[in-house]
Amino acid sequence: MSVDFLHPGEGAAIDRDVPALELRGIDKRFPGVVALDNVDFTLEGGKIHALMGENGAGKSTLIKIMAGVYGKDAGTIRMRGREVDIKSPRDSLKEGIKVVFQEIALISEFTVAENIFLEGYPTGKGGSIDWKKIRADSAALFNRIGFNVDPAARTGSLPVSQQQMVEIARALAHEARVVVMDEPTSSLTPNEVSLLFTVIRRLAALGIAVVYVSHKLDEVFEIADTVTVLRDGRHISTRPIGEHTNDTLIQDMIGRRIDNLFPRKRGAPGSKVALFVEKLSTAKKLNDVSFEARAGEVLGFFGLMGAGRTELAKAIVGYDPIASGTITVDGSRLVPHDTRTGVGLGIGLLTEDRKSEGLMGELPVYQNASLASLGAFARMGFVDKAREHRAVQDYVDRFRIKTPSLFQQVKNLSGGNQQKVLIARWLMRGLKVIVVDEPTRGIDVGAKSEIFALIDRLAGEGLAVVMMTSEMPELLGLADRIAVMCEGRLTAIMSRDEATQENILNAAIG
């Protein structure tokens, strides 16, 4: 396999007249669903092209057609003006298209160099694998993108940001002309995002067409040259990013204006302490954490990756064991320290990973929503289904959960509607404190606005909302007070007026 690919300043000519990749009239249908309807998508070499849309807009389907995971039902695909037929991932890679999916596809037990040349190892005399050349070529690829990763390191030992660099180096090893980045910053710290953007810009300087898929508007405005918006499987717009504002981009994505992304319809929180945490420590992460959350308040927690936000969320609801400290909910101690006691006292957790830790995807909406409160519908040891369905339907109506029926499998709902089902689960149980960990992760901007409004509404109804987030805009937009963590410690608690990005980040790095 050759790695003699475009070097900056060494004749990396970009033919501006011929698109690097051109998709025309692409259709894709699944049983009962039109995923893509006559979609056009054109990429220029040396440009960063954002692909945006709500969940279900068709982004993933379009990416998978480019990657050869799905075959198109109609339309044409051209690479540098030549019509191609992509029927498999091997075809896609052969044509110079590399997709870095959100779930990174590397073999964790292999070394970095072994993963980069997985599809074809260089051989030496006698046909044996030339391991020295593999490592040297890998180092040269990392040098080309300006990022240092040890080629001999075991891939599974690397942080997500470095695993992404391995995928990018792998793309260069295959002489990729198109690199697709699917939600690449979902698990990265701000510093890692900055490094990734540096590498993406370097890929563009090498003449590669980069597709950047993200729900994060601030990132798209920072990194993209052009943005294409899909909605309901149709192409809505393709415009230079400079022609967009936040409002116009959101309007293209959801088909309506959102006048206030962070609504605030409640007054100032009261003085009643709903949650009191004192000198809380765990065996591995948390160290002497103390704070209080008041009824009617949104208390936001911020920290860089590894700061301990999720560990704190799980500890204060009784999910993870603690080494020392006390947790008091509405005046009652969380003793014994377990989730059964926590729920009984009125504290619940909206987990960061809703698919593996929150939802039961194969079960219908009504069973997911009523799970924490089945006892309220029981008579003589049997669940009164009629009462259960009426109660769930009330929350479906109240939260505007979009589902064909209560019997729809919850895995078929959009991310935003899944999140609403989980919120309904806890409110049906009756809470005084709700802890929400990354409440908008993987959710499109239209659904985000609804989740933000719902969080504001919950606080307005008297709940204490403890919100863990890595998203600075929602932290500043929703929280009454902001607590900042660094390496398992609480480094600052500041009021809404005191909180600035600079103050928060300074506290987050200790």
From TrEMBL:
SUPFAM superfamilies recorded: P-loop containing nucleoside triphosphate hydrolases (SSF52540)
Encoding gene, per UniProt annotation: rbsA
InterPro entries referenced in this protein's UniProt entry, alphabetically: AAA+_ATPase, ABC_carbohydrate_import_ATPase, ABC_transporter-like_ATP-bd, ABC_transporter-like_CS, P-loop_NTPase
Family, similarity comment: Belongs to the ABC transporter superfamily.
GO molecular function, one term: ATP binding
SMART domains (UniProt xref): AAA
Protein name: Fused D-ribose transporter subunits of ABC superfamily: ATP-binding components
Any Pfam family the entry gives: ABC_tran
Keywords, sorted A to Z: ATP-binding, Cell membrane, Membrane, Nucleotide-binding, Repeat, Sugar transport, Translocase, Transport
UniProt domain ABC transporter: residue ranges: 21-257, 256-509
GO cellular component: plasma membrane
Compartments where found: Cell membrane
PROSITE patterns tied to this protein: ABC_TRANSPORTER_1, ABC_TRANSPORTER_2
Membrane topology: Peripheral membrane protein
